[in-house]
């Protein structure tokens, strides 16, 4: 809370400094709900012809640790057990993606698999009753899905991720996640992982860290329920896409 208030104060002062200079091109505003990271909204002026796309950028406080690693402030509904800061290793993720891209087929479908699974997760979450509805998105967070994908990719062979095998690889990803949920174990991709390719140079801080189980914070009953719903979502994927993609099911936008 104190960090967010401090951060928002600095953002408001920065916004005042740039708003006048940008007045002919766009309108810039800052929304800061209590206890949530602030969002910068950029709306182009109607006569500014280069771009007519409005943007909303979530701004998150971060503390640099060196070696392109950062601690980022977690929202109040982030991981339980009192965790206030998370580790951001996006540079290392990019290195691993580059390593995969060099060895996978040019038409590899691994990123499409991740996008489709995220979409199914979001659509299915709209029809779940509480408390599973709120637990669903926390257990199957984007980072958990991404970690499962990378873990499966590293098992190889990468040739099997050619786009013509999209459905088979997507099913493999769903079943791999189901097994992780049932076993209640999905290890962090970088913290203490000694099996990563040597080409993905990891900072010493990551190599020597204690391995972390991303599912350790959730009880077995919750993970079993999510595992069951995940497989059910995959089986009913065409029906779920048709049903929850209808306009009457779409959630209203968060803001103008």
Automatic annotation (TrEMBL):
Primary location recorded for the protein, binned into one broad class? membrane
| Protein name as catalogued | IPIL2 protein
Query: What kind of membrane protein is this, topologically?
Result: Single-pass type I membrane protein
UniProt keyword annotations, A-Z: Membrane, Signal, Transmembrane, Transmembrane helix
| Domain called Mab-21-like HhH/H2TH-like: residue spans | 109-196
GO cellular component terms, A-Z: membrane
Q: Which InterPro entries does this entry report, sorted A to Z?
A: ITPRIP-like (IPR026250), Mab-21_HhH/H2TH-like (IPR046906), MAB21L/cGLR (IPR024810)
Q: Does the keyword DNA-binding apply?
A: no
Q: Which Pfam families match?
A: Mab-21_C
Family the UniProt entry places it in? Belongs to the ITPRIP family.
What are the subcellular locations of this protein? Answer: Membrane
Supply the PANTHER family for this chain: CELL FATE DETERMINING PROTEIN MAB21-RELATED, INOSITOL 1,4,5-TRISPHOSPHATE RECEPTOR-INTERACTING PROTEIN-LIKE 2
């Amino acid at each position: 809370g104190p960090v967010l208030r401090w951060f928002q104060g600095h953002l408001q002062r920065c916004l005042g400094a740039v708003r006048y200079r940008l007045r002919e091109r766009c309108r810039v505003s800052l929304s800061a709900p209590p206890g949530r990271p602030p969002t910068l909204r950029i709306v182009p002026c109607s006569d500014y012809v280069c771009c007519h796309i409005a943007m909303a950028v979530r701004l998150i406080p971060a503390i640099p640790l060196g070696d392109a690693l950062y601690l980022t402030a977690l929202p109040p509904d982030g991981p339980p057990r009192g965790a206030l800061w998370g580790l951001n290793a996006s540079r290392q993720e990019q290195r691993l993606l580059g390593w995969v891209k060099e060895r996978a087929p040019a038409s590899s479908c691994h990123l499409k698999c991740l996008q489709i699974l995220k979409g199914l997760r979001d659509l299915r979450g709209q029809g779940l009753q509480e408390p599973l509805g709120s637990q669903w998105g926390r257990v199957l967070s984007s980072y958990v899905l991404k970690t499962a994908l990378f873990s499966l990719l590293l098992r190889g062979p990468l040739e099997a991720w050619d786009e013509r095998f999209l459905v088979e690889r997507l099913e493999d990803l769903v079943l791999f996640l189901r097994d992780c949920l049932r076993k209640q174990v999905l290890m962090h991709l970088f913290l203490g992982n000694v099996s990563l390719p040597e080409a993905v140079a990891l900072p010493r801080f990551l190599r020597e860290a204690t391995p972390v189980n991303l599912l350790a914070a959730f009880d077995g009953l919750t993970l079993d329920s999510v595992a069951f719903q995940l497989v059910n979502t995959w089986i009913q994927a065409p029906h779920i896409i048709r049903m929850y993609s209808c306009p009457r099911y779409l959630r209203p936008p968060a803001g103008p």
